[in-house]
Design brief:
Helix 6 (145-151) links the parallel strand 4 (134-138) and strand 5. The chain has an eight-stranded parallel sheet, with helices on both faces. It has one domain: Arginase, Chain A. With 281 residues, the protein is of the alpha/beta class. 52% of the residues are buried. 38% of the residues lie in helices and 15% in strands. The protein has helices at 22-34, 47-50, 56-63, 78-92, 120-129, 145-151, 190-207, 233-250, 266-280; strands at residues 2-5, 38-41, 95-98, 134-138, 157-164, 179-184, 211-216, 253-258.
């Protein structure tokens, strides 16, 4: 599997106390490079590509830096445009991981939040698979309220999310239409999480998608400072095995986009996940 990455995403920092730091991506990058993963350069998204998902009003706010959110500071629009462009490139490559920041799944059609400006994965799906059947599997510890906002009611898209509830953004308590939500209580361990994931995978198999897009977060780890789920490092290998088995079973195109994950062991978590995934594909 190839990793789509641009070193430009390391050039901004929200400050010493903000968890969405360059270090989290650098830890993953260094670990995957040492393990032989091939790095492919990313690109910026074009305005027309952003408008496939977001309203013009939202785009203008980001580009003109005319917004305020305490968790999502004002930054140079180059960086969210780059994250979206890398995700589009990963989607077109068929089998790739977009190693990007800022993340995206809390960004809706006309709102930002939760460290997210543009919805990277949604833009990749819309630009590459607009008329195809697509399943989105969100494995971040937080519910992807932005992704649900973008795709709610679209018959050709199935959104499936496993996440802690209650937890920011306090959505995803129940399923609605084509958005299947699996809320998990604080303290959920790897055994329960994986049992729930297998249920979710069965729903994706029944949907028979042409492509699978995975919002890949690593904040379900027990040592993550922003959630209270209790997965261990070994659980991420098993998680990867389940997702790899899904891809093999439905024989579809797939791509990954990085979302959250804020522990010092995020590099190990990513490597374990992809080791498990590649054992099953």
């Amino acid at each position: 599997m190839k990793v789509v990455f641009s070193p430009l995403c390391l050039r901004y920092d929200h400050g010493p106390y903000h968890p969405e730091s360059p270090r989290r991506v650098k830890l993953i990058l260094d670990t995957l490079v040492k393990s032989g993963f091939q790095i492919v350069p990313g690109r910026q998204a074009e305005i027309r590509e952003i408008l496939e998902v977001h309203e013009r009003e939202h785009l203008d706010r980001i580009v003109n830096r005319n917004y305020f959110d305490p968790d999502t500071p004002v930054i140079d629009p180059t960086f969210p445009l780059l994250a979206a462009g890398c995700s589009i490139k990963a989607a077109r490559m068929k089998e790739a991981f977009a190693l990007v920041r800022p993340p995206g799944h809390h960004a809706g059609r006309n709102f930002l939040g939760g460290f997210c400006y543009f919805n990277n994965l949604a833009i990749g799906v819309k630009c590459v698979y607009e008329k195809k059947r697509v399943a989105i599997l969100d494995l971040d510890a937080h519910h992807g309220n932005g992704t649900q906002d973008v795709f709610l009611g679209r018959s050709n898209v199935l959104y499936v999310s496993l996440h802690q509830y209650p937890l920011f953004p306090m959505t995803g308590k129940e399923s609605i239409d084509n958005c299947l939500n699996y809320p998990l209580p604080p303290g959920t361990n790897g055994k329960t999480y994986l049992k729930t994931l297998r249920k979710a995978v069965n729903e994706i198999e029944r949907f028979h998608p042409h492509a699978l897009a995975i919002s890949l977060g690593f904040d379900a780890y027990a040592g993550d400072p922003l959630s209270d789920l209790r997965l261990q490092i070994r659980d991420f290998y098993r998680l990867g095995e389940v997702v790899g088995g899904l891809v093999k079973e439905i024989d579809c195109r797939y791509f990954f986009v990085l979302e959250g994950g804020y522990s010092e062991r995020i590099g190990e978590l990513a490597l374990e996940f992809f080791r498990g995934f590649q054992m099953k594909v």
